[in-house]
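Please predict the structure of the following assembly.
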Amino acid sequence: MAITENIIGTLPDERGHFGPYGGLFVSETLMEPLEELRAAYNHYMADENFLKELDEDLANYVGRPSPIYHARRWSEQLGGAQIYLKREDLNHTGAHKVNNTVGQALLARHMGKRRIIAETGAGQHGVASATVAARLGLECVVYMGAVDIIRQEANVYRMRLLGAEVRAVESGSKTLKDALNEAMRDWVTNVDNTFYIIGTVAGPHPYPAMVRDFQSIIGREARTQMLHQAGRQPDALVACVGGGSNAIGLFYPYLDDQAVAIYGVEAAGNGLETGQHAAPLCAGKPGVLHGNRTYLMEDADGQIIETHSISAGLDYPGVGPEHAWLKDSGRANYVAVTDDQALAAFHDLTRIEGIIPALESSHALAYASQLATTMRPDQIILVNLSGRGDKDMHTVAAREGIHL
Amino acid sequence: MSLISRKFAHLKAQGKKALIPFITAGDPIPEITVDLMHDLVAAGADLIELGVPFSDPMADGPVIQRASERALEYHVSLRDVLDMVSQFRQLDIETPVILMGYLNPIEVMGYEHFADRAADAGVDGLLIVDIPPEEGEELQRIFKAQSIDQIFLVAPTSTPDRIQRICDVSGGFVYYVSVKGVTGANHLDLSSMEHKLAEIRSRTDLPVGVGFGIKDAQTAAAVSRLADAVVVGSALVSRIEALADEPEKIGASLREVISSMRQAMDKVD
C-alpha cells in the first residue's frame, strides 16, 4: 500500500475513523456522552487558558520535559547503532501514563464531572489516574482484573493510598480487557457525573485521538532534544505496543518524516507460534471490540481470546486503531519479542546503564538491541523508555525463584 | 410486511401488548435452548429474543455476562445459534425470532454470509448492541435485502436528533432502554420513560418496546400501559442460573414467570 505523504493532522476523520479502523462502536446510551466529550475536547484544545494550565501541570507536576539519554555503554557493547532513551520513566508516577491523565482530568474538571473512573492492567494508568484525582479532589474508582491485582500488588496499594477505590474484576479472563468492559458498564450507569479516563489509544472516538494528542508531547519534545543532543533526528524509533499510547506519543510527530523508520514492538509472550502471546498486529486480524474496529486476538467464532505476556501492561487482545492503520499503510513496522527476550533486555539495561526499565518498555529495548546490530555506529535509534521497573520487582524475582 | 410487523399488527387488533422474553442461546446447556423457546411461547411470549454469546458483553450486567460465559463453555457459536433457530422453526413458523448480540462474531462470519444464513434459518430481526446507525450503513443495506428487521436502541441520553435518526433506520420496532445502565439494572423510572416514549412516537409509527430493568409481573404490567412491547431478560436468566445444575426444571420455572407476566399485562386496560 502507498504511504501517505502528509499524515499528521489528517486522521481520524470527524467520526473517528483511521481508514477502516476506529469509529464509534458502542451502545446507544454512550453516543451522546461521547459526542459531549468530543465537543468539549475540541473546545478546550483551542482554549489558551486550558492549554496554559496543561503546560504548567506537565512542567511542574509531571516534571517535563523528560530527558533523552544516550546509552553509550550499552550501544558500544552491542556494536551497532547508537541507542538513545526517551526517559518517560522519570515522570511523576514513573511512566508515560500521567501525560494523558493530567490532560483528561483537567478536561473532566472543566466539564464539571466530579467522579473519575479508569481501567488498569499493570496499574500504571490506575496510579496515574488516582494521582491526578487526589490532586484535583475528585472521587476515583479504578477497575482492575483480579489476576492483575495479584500480579501488581504494590500498585494496588499505591492507588488505595492515593484515595482511590480499586474494584476487582472477576469476569472473563480477569485482566485488562475485562477491566475495560467493567469501566464501560460503570460509565454507562453513572454517565451524568462521571468522566471515564481511558488509559490508551483505544476505545470509541474521541479517545484514540485525544489520548494520542496528550501523549504526543513525547515525540514533540524528542524532536527538539534530538536536534540539540545529536544534531539530527534518529534513523529509527522503537516503542512497545500494548494498547499503544506511549508508542503513538513518540511516533505521531515523526509520521511525516519518511527518513525515520518506525517500529512498534508487541508482546510475543511464550512465542507467536505457541498462540500464547499478546500480539494482535503481528498475529491477529481485524474485528470490533471496546468501541472501535482494530486488529484483535480472536478465535474462528469471533470470541476474544485470552492473551499472555509477562508484562501486565501489554496483556491486551486489541490495539489502538491508529496503529492498525499505520500497519496497513506500511508507515510503521510491527514486530514482537518474547517474555525471555524482554527479560534479557531488562537485565542488560539494569546492569549496563543503571536504569531499571518496566517490563513493558523492556520489549522495546529487546527489539532495539536486535535492530542496533544491523545498523552502523553512526546511526541512531530512539527508544521510548515508557516506564520504570520498580513495579515489576516481584514478577522478575519470582521468575528467578526468589520470593521477596 | 415482516413477521415482526404482522405480529404487532395482530396484537394491536386484539388490544394486547407484546411480551418479549430474552434468553441466551446455549445457557446453561445448548441442548435445551430450543425447548425453552417453545416453553416461552406456550406460556404467552409473542416474540423471542435470543442472545448470541459473546466473550466481552460490554452493555450487559453480571447476570447476562454469566449466561454468555456458561454458553461459551460449550463453545456455542453464531453458527450454532442459527442452527437452533432453524430447529425452532420446524415446529413454530409464527413467532418472530430476534437475535441480540455484539458485532464481532458477525464481522468474522462476514455480513453477507451471515445475512443469508440468518434469513435461511428464519431469523426475523437483529439487534446488534454495539453498532449505532452511523456505523451500520452497509449492514442495513444487506439486512434490508434479506428482509431482516434491524432493531435499534433508543436510550435516556438520546437527543431528539438522534431519536429521529434511529427511527429512520429502524425496522420491526424501536427498543427503548429504560435506564442508564447495563441489562439487569434496578431503577425503573416510569415518568421519564413516558416522556421519552412520547418523543419517540412523535417521530415514528413503529411500535415501541421497553427493556432493561423489568423484574416481575408488576413492572411488566406497569410498562405495558405505556409501551407496545415489554422485553424481559435478566429476570429470566437469573432463574436459569439458579437452576443451571438442574436444567430439566428450567422450562417450568420460565413458564411460570412468563405466564404471570402475561396475565398481569392482559389485565391492564
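Residues 43 and 259 of chain B are 5 Å apart (CA to CA). The first helix of chain B runs from residue 3 to 14.
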